[in-house]
Write a structure and sequence with these properties.
The chain is of the alpha/beta class. The chain contains 2 helices and 8 strands; from the N terminus they run βαββββαβββ. It has one domain: 2,3-Dihydroxybiphenyl 1,2-Dioxygenase, domain 1 (Roll). The strands form 2 sheets. Strands 1-4-3-2 form a 4-stranded mixed beta sheet, covered by helices on one side. A 4-stranded mixed beta sheet has the order 5-8-7-6, covered by helices on one side. A hairpin with a 7-residue loop joins strand 2 and strand 3. The longest helix has 11 residues.
Amino acid sequence: MSVAQFREVNPVLPVRSVRDAVLYYTEKLGFRLLFQNDPQDPRYAAIERGSVRLHLQWHDPESFRDGVDTASLRFVINDVDALFAEYQDKGVFHQRTALEDTEWGTREFAFYDPDKNGLFFYRSR
């Protein structure tokens, strides 16, 4: 009997405005747009950077309750210091964003996107 192998995962992030989220991820975080279902008023889109693909799906703004209905993603990065430097002047960090070595053996930093989805970038030390 063969065993099914997982090949990749494409998370779907809840966003209030797909158009705004596409602009944020492409202009500030270096992703590129793969597709969106409507060029004027998209409700669903996919973006990519390297081998990472994210899907962005419109959710009613009323469904966002204090960040409870959002996601957190952990991205494995080969050079987390270089990515931190790349993002430093993009206006994406919050007041507690810091590049740090953790107790669990990673070097990482994190911030939230405009819809409060947590974005963590790390590498093993």
